[in-house]
Amino acid sequence: MVIGGMITSVLFLLGYMWKEAHSNRVRHVTLSFPHFPVHWPPLTIFFISDIHRRIVSSRMLENVKGKADLVVIGGDLAERGVPEARVRENVRRLQAVAPVYFVWGNNDDEVDYDLQSLLEEERVHVLKNKAKVWEHGGVPVALIGVGDVSRKEADIDRALECAPPQSFRILACHNPAIIGRLKDEQRISLVLSGHTHGGQIRLFSLGLYEKGGLKWHGNTALFTSNGYGTTGVPLRLGAPAETHLITIVPGKTTAEKKCLSKTGETM
């Protein structure tokens, strides 16, 4: 009886962990910045990181179509053993939401095909130590992408060469450790990262990494995602799979930027 109960409990826990690893949450986050001009329209980014072996849910993406100005893939789109056809399908599904931008993760070069060429064929903007600049509300926005930190491929200064001094600057980097390399004079407002999986399997508040979320480092907001996929085992506990709709709006005071203006989620 006791053994049977233990086995049932273990199976229930494994089922719950599998469900958490394969959920399709879209977390809605609104961030306000005092230097994001009041006359600008809001800027919304669909952010997805660490897809790894998963197939991105078409149903989930239907819920975000028409709501995002751009899609940012925060690295680890693939890993060893992920077939080319799956990566291509995932990219095409994301392209149906908005223009797609990609930064390299530490696992992306494990595949046995040319991922760079695949992304270029699918019209994905690959940002490796470079910036993409466009007009938003009449003022330039710079999305800056750098290489993977763990492979010593991140070159922020090179990436900033094409970013106008007056631009609103968003930095995409797979590894949140990039925050330690930023300088005040680089004027990065927001950093988007993944890599940590939020610890993936947490026991109470303990995990190999911190749970994803928002932290402020001076005037720079560091937003780290738990990620969409998994590594090692397809299980999660205490750090559910997630994607994000991040909306940037103007703020009236410096104090306003210290918190999330609004959060929510859809499944």
Question: Outline of this structure?
Answer:
18% of the residues lie in helices and 27% in strands. It is α/β, with parallel strands linked by helices.
Biggest β-sheet, characterized? 7 strands, mixed
- Termini separation (Å)? 37 Å
Lateral strand order in the biggest sheet: 5-4-3-2-12-1-13
Helix-strand topology string: HEEHEHEHEEEHEEEEEE
Percentage of residues assigned to helices: 10-25%
β-sheet strand percentage: 25-35%
Mass-distribution shape: globular
Q: Got a strand count?
A: 13
The stretches of 5 or more residues where confidence is low (pLDDT under 50) are: 253-262
Mean pLDDT: 91
How large is the count of helical segments? Answer: 5
* Backbone structural class: alpha/beta
Q: What is the alpha-carbon Rg in Å? A: 19 Å
Task: Please specify the SSE layout and strand pairing.
Layout: H1 2-21, E1 26-33, E2 43-48, H2 58-62, E3 70-73, H3 84-95, E4 100-102, H4 115-121, E5 125-126, E6 130-136, E7 139-145, H5 156-159, E8 168-172, E9 188-193, E10 213-217, E11 220-224, E12 243-250, E13 262-266
Parallel strand pairs: 1-12, 2-3, 3-4, 4-5, 7-8, 8-9, 9-11
Antiparallel strand pairs: 1-13, 2-12, 6-7, 10-11
Describe the structure.
With 267 residues, the chain is an alpha/beta fold. Helices cover 18% and strands 27% of the residues.
Can you give keywords for this protein?
alpha/beta; 267 residues; 6-stranded mixed β-sheet; 7-stranded mixed β-sheet
